[in-house]
Amino acid sequence: MDFSFTEEQSMLRDTIASYLADNYSFDQRRAGLGREPFWRPNVWSAFADELGILGAAFPEAQGGLGGGYTENMVVMEELGKALVVEPYLGTVVIGGGFLKHGASAGAEEMIGQIIAGKAILAFAYAEPQGRYNIRDLKTTARKEGTGYVLNGHKAVVTGAPYATHLIVTARTGGGQREAGGISVFIVPKSAKGVTTRDYPTVDGFRASEVYFENVALGAEARIGGEGEALPLVEKVMDEAIAATCAEACGVLRRLQEGTVEYTKQRKQFGVPISSFQVLQHRMVDMFIQLEQSISMTYMATIRLSDGDAERAKAASAAKVQIGKACKFVGQNAVQLHGGMGVTDEMAIGHYFKRATMIEGLFGSTDHHLARYEVLSLGTAA
Amino acid sequence: MNLDFPPEDTAFRDEVRTFLAENYPRDLREKQERGETLSKEDYLSWHRILAKKGWSAPSWPVELGGTGWTPTQKYIWSEEQARADTLGVLPFGVSMLAPVLYTFGTEEQKQRFLPGIRDGIDWWCQGYSEPGSGSDLASLKTRAERITGDDGKEYYVVNGQKTWTTLGQHADWGFFLVRTDPDAKPQAGISFLLIDMKSPGIAVRRITTLEGGHEVNDVFLDNVKVPVENRIFHENQGWTCAKALLAHERSGIAGVARSKRGLERLRQMASNEMSDDGGTLIQDAFFRRKVAELEIDLTALEFTELRTLAGESSGKGPGPESSILKIKGTEIQQRLQDLALEAAGHYGAPFLGEAGHNSGIGPQHSLDLAGDYFNGRKTSIYGGSNEIQRNIISKMVLGI
I want to staple B366 with a disulfide (CB 3.0 to 4.6 A). Which of A218, B235, B346, B347 is the partner? Predict the structure, then answer.
């Protein structure tokens, strides 16, 4: 039993933190988000070249630095602290996850491209009708010759505007909500028949509605078994959830610390408002939520290596804690900042927005509570 | 970052499990199952078995009788005790007083008192709270005045009232906070005294709690003579001892292992109780959601405690973060009791005490659940109320 970090992991954290301190202040972030292309490719290049962090979580045999889940956790927490929009989650955690676990023809090369900062991936899984049910798919990949023809509409694909490739879930068989018949494909965004409508999301990230119209794919585009990819999708989603929990810990820490700092400065009735016990206890409860979230992030990250059922239970449990914490800490951070909390000019509101979006990312608190219930207590009546 | 238990820890778990299975007194287990009130001898018999094995005071320094276990081993120890539903060693001597003794006591005091604590010879109680001093402990008024006795020796004469003294009805000795300088600032005029409960002038009066139990007492002190050599640390600096003791009281208060066992029992019970629509209660949409949320919160607490343990193994003592464990641990204990009583339905109401066992009134698993619920409200009040814990975190951790 060990909750400490290796020297390499601590160095990784310091490297990112110091780069972001110099290059990703609140004002620098705002400036980047306010102009074309609405993200900062030079930051991504720096991640690849100057910092060399994009390979941290890949095995050495694939050109990486030999890390894994803990490295992703460390990176994501630091990215959360600075509200980084550049697509580490979609590219390294999710894209990398599919390429590592699912057999596919071009995996080696694609991982090399990811580590070099050349390939950027986004995960197109949600559909307008499906809510958080990852099995609810109308998108189809019809077998044609040795390859497939892809048709469908994917909803709110985070990071798609920056992506070079999309990881797409589609039906090669089965009914709309069946477990069987799901396959995963990697699709170049430039492929004929792929169109996107790009837009900003409320937290400063970018997303797209993605449409596939008779997109021709070779057999090599498939990742994992045909029609048998649901366990793979669930595994990678759980890895994404653990990483998102780590990002949330970074966001929550800024919300909690920023609020304590603000209440020490802000004076009313002639005294700092931090001297009021009703606010002190609120901030303690925020702090406890943060600490419990860190604990659950460790737990979920460690359990990613367990069997399917344990892993899934751990990920959902962590997401429930993080979802509740994001709501409680976020809302109270704004409340304790008073009017300033609802202005665009203070960073606190921007952390609140990201925390709120994380609540619903990869499934809401209720969704994961329901999933946990079944895994732990069996099915309901 | 990993949860691996090395082979030596797995072997340790087996050793502990076997020891508990072979040595826990059968008559004690039967009494527990019948819900009988346990006697002083019941508690001490188990304590003495552990002492004989060398396991009655795991956290003490090894030279004084501690086991030298790693934090992981201590965690395994608490898990296995909970799993086997054993009594715990009472905390007053072993966990609360002893660290004060071996941190602040003289060599003579350590030699005089520690063996009796470790071996389950002396029963200790706590004299902290007073009727007018609860959360504001430093306002305590019990007065100790120094005199020279007829024998030429120095004494304190103690007058006042202590309250909420847990199991004080059995106590041989008590550790007391008393005011030795009424003119100093509240925290500065307090001393820490060890008082023989058989001393003339001490009266212990039962306080009956909601479930009808006798756990807590008032202790009246009327001109009680206490030899000066029974004072721990310097005169008027007892507050230092008191604070150290409270930090130790909070660590381990999370009760994760016991709550995990309680959750198992609750799940078992809800699998046997019926819901309104004829299914089992564990399948009921509303009830199962509450169980799931509790289970998740308990997991979070468990990992927060594991992080604290890991910190302790790298040399940090129990810090103010232990207040988190106290708050969340007691909240979870209370939610468990709350859900168990809810699960009992109609049979939460019969108030039968020891007569409930085999009475044929309601299922066995419903016995005493109301008692546990009402008794359990104490947990968020004692050991520094959960509101006081928030004050501590605010000041010591958030720096407000």
Answer: B347
User: Contacts of residue B282 in chain A, CB cutoff 8 Å?
Assistant: 377-378
Residue B206 to residue B218: CA distance in whole angstroms? 7
Tell me the chain A residues in contact with residue B3 when contact means C-beta distances shorter than 8 Å.
1, 302-303
AA letter at B251: S
DSSP A66: S
Categorize the per-residue pLDDT at A299 as very low, low, confident or very high, splitting at 50, 70 and 90.
very high
In the block, residue with structure tokens 């023989």: B196
Rounded CA separation B334/B379 (Å)? 8
- Name every residue whose Cβ is closer than 8 Å to that of residue B138 and which is 6 or more positions away in sequence: B186, B187, B190, B239
**B374 is written with which tokens?**
């009402």
Is there a contact between A296 and B307 if contact means CB atoms under 8 Å apart?
A: no
Cβ contact (<8 Å) for B400 and A377?
no
Q: Which residues contact B92 (CB under 8 A, 6 or more apart)?
A: B123, B124, B125, B126, B166, B167, B175
C-alpha distance from A296 to closest chain B C-alpha (Å): 6
Q: How many CB pairs under 8 A join A and B?
A: 124
List the single residue in A288, A293, A373 with the smallest CB-CB distance to B288: A373
Strand partners, A171: A140, A182
In this structure, are residues B123 and B173 in contact, taking their beta carbons and an 8 Å threshold? yes
Q: Averaged over A232-253, what is the pLDDT?
A: 98
The candidate with the shortest Cα–Cα distance to A102, out of A173, A179, A186, is A186
Q: 3-state class of B182 per DSSP?
A: coil
Q: Check residue B6 and give its pLDDT.
A: 83
Instruction: With CA atoms as reference, report the closest residue to A95 among A193, A198, A168, A191.
Output: A168
Size (chain B), residues: 400
The CA angle B46-B47-B48, to the nearest 5 degrees, is 90
Tell me which chain A residues have a C-beta less than 8 angstroms from the C-beta of B275.
Answer: 381
Residues of A in contact with B388 (CB under 8 A): none
Q: Is A298 on the interface with B (CB under 8 A)?
A: yes
Q: Is A301 within 8 Å of chain B by CB?
A: yes
Reported as a single tens digit per residue, the pLDDT across A157-207 is 999 999 999 999 999 999 999 999 999 999 999 999 999 999 999 999 999
Output A314-317 pairs: Cβ under 8 A, ≥24 positions apart. A314/A238, A315/A237, A315/A238, A315/A241, A315/A242, A315/A368, A316/A241, A316/A363, A316/A368, A316/A369, A316/A371, A316/A372, A316/A375, A317/A368, A317/A372, A317/B295, A317/B296, A317/B299, A317/B300
- ipTM attached to this prediction: 0.95
CA distance linking residue A110 with residue B117, whole number of Å: 66
Beta bridge partners of B162: B219
* Phi then psi dihedrals of residue A206, to 5 deg: -125, 150
Is the full-model pTM beyond 0.90? yes
Tell me the HSE value of A50 on the side-chain side, using a 13 A CA sphere: 12
Q: What is the pLDDT of residues B244-302, one digit of tens each?
A: 887 666 556 789 999 999 999 999 999 999 999 999 999 999 999 999 999 999 999 99
Contact B285 A381 (CB under 8 A): yes
In the DSSP assignment, the letter for residue B377 is G
Q: Do A321 and B275 touch (CB under 8 A)?
A: no
Question: Under a CB-based contact definition with an 8 Å cutoff, are residues A262 and A203 in contact?
Answer: no
Cα–chain-centroid distance for residue B364?
27
Asked which of A125-129, B116-120, B252-256 is least confident by mean pLDDT, the reply is B252-256
Cβ–Cβ under 8 Å, residues B155 and B229: no
Residues of B in contact with A266 (CB under 8 A): none
Q: Rounded CA gap, B346 and A217, in Å? A: 64
